[in-house]
Structure formats: structure tokens, C-alpha cells
Design brief:
404 residues, alpha/beta, eight-stranded mixed sheet, six-stranded antiparallel sheet, 26% strand
């Protein structure tokens, strides 16, 4: 039988009635002729609640024990869903990440999937069961439970779909698909029928919370189509794939990310090796750096700015401040009140005018640009955090995305 992997987010399984609703959707897919493997997230705000509880017990929870704790959220959801399916007369079984054969590295809270042994899942499918897999987790070589980081259930689902040779991975959530902008910010935003892996990866990396970037990367590498749709209705969703789509000479979507902090090292001596030392030390500390800008040198002195997530700002300062003193820089300054706004679209390649329209629109709205970064299909600006929603609305109108 053809196989499909469903993934349901925390909102979709947020209470008993929603779990029963998901069970009915799974049964419909099974009745339509598909074998079904399901990946679930933890119910509602369970993960956040467990993190808060851990920090109430101790200010420094063990990374290993925190992973074990957080993995229980998905176990609860998967077992309840299996119970609901059995209550509706269908054979089903819940599996932890370890039982489903998901092997990871040992990097607690940010583990990466190294391999999947699908033998147990295939065996259960062969016995006619619907298989429910707890997302977001796996097991390391030392047999410790690991978690994949926030949004990791998406990665679990796509990785399982690839390893099982599924025809598609379908991600069901509380939105109907991928939009030209966040519809909560821009009511005129339009749902896209399809989007390329490249565009979706940029969207996911630069602010869209609908798909996790690592899941999109996996889909792109292995050519696994991913459908994003609502678990609350049967409306058509958005297909993420690598097919030959019509090249539109326009922006596809606009996204914003308010989880941005900028670190500036003022008065850096302009000599070889300093940037390597700074960013090498940040990498060793586990700090992920995004935009990097170095000013032109004046009399052998320059300023170096880079962005990190707000949660990493303190750690980044702790790394660079001693280095700044060591190299004779004047000071380190942090700004945690910023946001990234991006325009994204494959139609932007080799076509002039997009940057000019973007910058003119922001200027007309009195929005100051602090930093700029680009790729072949993206232009991103760093602006004041409180102006992000205003910038997205203005750019959505400027590029006429309401006509999509």
C-alpha cells in the first residue's frame, strides 16, 4: 500500500476532542487506501510548561535530564492518540523516538538525526497497525534520550517519510498553508498553492514559524514533497516541492523575525585573524551568528557588528567582551530591540528593482535600516523591533501581494 506520513502540531492535539478529530482524519486517510505513520508534537503549551517547571526546581537543570523531561510531552500525545484510534475500532500503536529507530548525536536539546532504522515501524505497518511516533526526540549512541530542538517534530516527520519511502509528508497545523505574509499582521495576505524548497527554506529561516528549516532542508535534499494544511478543515493547503513552477517576476512572500539581537564591537583593530578569533570562539560556545557587517577601516580601526537570537545575546557578550579587551577594542554594545524583515522570491533572481522598491517603501514609512543582508532570492533588513509589523504591511502592499 502507498504510505503517507502525517504530522500534527501541538494545537491540533491540544485537548481530548482535538485528539479525536485528528484520529478521524487519520482513519479517513487509511480508508482512502494509504498506510499511515503519524508524528505528533506535545499537547498545546506542554513543552513550555515543562521548561518552566524545570527552572522552578533548579536554576541550572541538567541538559540530559531536561531532554528526558521534555520528551514526555510527545509521549503523552502519541499514547492518547493511539488510544483514540483503538477506541474507534482501528489497530494503532504508539512508539517513542527510540522505539521508532531514530538515532541522533549526543548534543542535548539540539540533537541532529544521524540515522533511522525503520524496521520496527515497518513491522507494525505490516501487522496492519497505524503507527504513532512521538516527535522531537531520539536516542543517542550512549542510549540517552535526546531532543531535536524547538520545531523538531517537523524534522522527525520528514526524516521518517524519507526513510520509509513515503509518497509525501503532510504537516497539519492551525493554519491553512503558507501565506504571502503572516495573516495575523496582514489580513490581506494570500495563501500560496505551492512554494519551492528554496523559498520555503528562506521563509523558515527568516521568521516564518510554519515549518522548521531543518525539515525543509531534508525535504529538499531527498525530494520529499511536504503539504502544509489545516487540521481543522479540508481546505487545500500549500505544497512545498521542487517541481518546475512558473517563474514569477515578483516577490513570493514577506516575513519578519523579532528574535534578533545585535552585538557591535566598537574600535576593532583592522588586522588579519581577529574576525577568525571572534567567530571561532562564538562557534565553540554554541552561539549561532546570522548577519555580519564590518565597516570600512579608517586609520586601521573598524566596527564589527553581528546578529544572534535574543536568547544568545548574553552568552555572545560573555564571549566577545574579554576578546575585545584583549585586542584593544573600545567597547561592546548589545541591542535586543530589533527585528529582521525579509522579502523572498525566486522571481527576484537577475531582475533589477526589488531592493530599490523595498528601501523606498521603508523610507516612505519612516523606517530606518540598520543592516542589510541578501541571498539570490532574499533581501533582509534589520530594523527597530516595534516597526516590524508596519514594515511587513507596507511591503506587502508595495509588492501587490494581495493580488496573489
Amino acid at each position: 500500500m502507498p504510505l503517507v506520513v502525517h504530522k500534527y502540531g501541538g494545537t491540533s492535539v491540544g485537548d481530548a476532542e482535538r485528539i479525536r478529530n485528528v484520529a478521524r482524519r487519520i482513519i479517513a486517510a487509511k480508508d482512502a487506501g494509504d498506510d499511515v505513520v503519524v508524528v505528533v508534537s506535545a499537547m498545546g503549551d506542554t513543552t513550555d510548561d515543562l521548561i518552566k517547571l524545570a527552572y522552578q526546581v533548579t536554576d541550572t537543570p541538567s541538559a540530559r535530564e531536561l531532554d528526558v523531561l521534555l520528551s514526555t510531552g510527545e509521549l503523552v500525545a502519541s499514547t492518547l492518540l493511539a488510544m483514540a484510534l483503538k477506541g474507534m475500532g482501528h489497530e494503532a500503536i504508539s512508539l517513542s523516538g527510540a522505539q521508532a529507530g531514530i538515532r541522533t548525536d549526543s548534543n542535548h536539546s539540539k540533537a541532529r538525526i544521524m540515522a533511522i532504522d525503520p524496521a520496527r515501524v515497518k513491522s507494525e505497518l505490516g501487522a496492519g497497525r497505524i503507527v504513532i511516533v512521538a516527535g522531537f526526540q531520539g536516542i543517542a549512541q550512549d542510549s540517552d534520550v535526546t531532543t531535536l530542538g524547538r520545531g523538531g517534530s517537523d524534522t522527525t516527520a520528514v526524516a521518517l517519510a524519507v526513510s520509509l519511502g513515503a509518497r509525501a509528508c503532510e504537516r497539519y497545523t492551525d493554519v491553512e498553508g503558507i501565506y504571502t505574509a503572516d495573516p495575523r499582521q496582514v489580513p490581506e495576505a494570500c495563501k500560496l498553492k505551492e512554494i519551492s524548497y528554496d523559498e520555503m527554506l528562506e521563509l523558515a529561516t527568516y521568521g516564518s514559524k510554519v515549518m522548521h528549516p531543518r525539515a525543509v532542508e531534508l525535504g529538499q535534499i531527498y525530494g520529499m514533497p511536504i503539504l502544509v494544511a489545516s487540521s481543522f478543515n479540508d481546505n487545500r493547503g500549500t505544497l512545498i516541492h521542487g517541481g518546475h513552477m512558473e517563474i514569477r517576476n515578483k516577490v513570493t512572500a514577506i516575513t519578519a523575525d523579532t528574535d534578533v539581537a545585535k552585538i557591535t564591537i566598537v574600535g576593532v583593530p583592522d588586522r588579519p585573524g581577529i574576525a577568525a578569533g571572534i567567530f571561532g570562539s562564538l562557534a565553540k560556545a554554541g552561539v549561532s551568528v546570522d548577519t555580519i557587517v564590518q565597516n570600512a577601516s579608517i586609520q586601521g580601526i573598524t566596527d564589527l557588528s553581528f546578529t544572534v537570537s535574543k536568547g544568545d545575546a548574553g552568552k555572545a557578550l560573555g564571549v566577545v567582551e574579554p576578546l575585545a579587551q584583549e585586542i584593544g577594542a573600545r567597547e561592546c554594545v548589545a541591542d535586543t530591540s530589533l527585528s529582521k524583515v525579509s522579502i523572498i522570491g525566486t522571481g527576484m533572481q537577475n531582475t533589477p528593482g526589488y531592493a530599490a522598491t523595498m528601501f523606498d517603501t521603508l523610507f516612505a514609512g519612516g523606517i530606518n535600516i540598520q543592516l542589510i543582508t541578501t541571498s539570490e532570492i532574499r533581501i533582509t533588513v534589520i530594523i527597530a523591533g516595534e516597526q516590524a509589523a508596519e514594515a511587513v504591511k507596507a511591503l506587502h502592499k508595495a509588492f501587490e501581494l494581495e493580488k496573489e
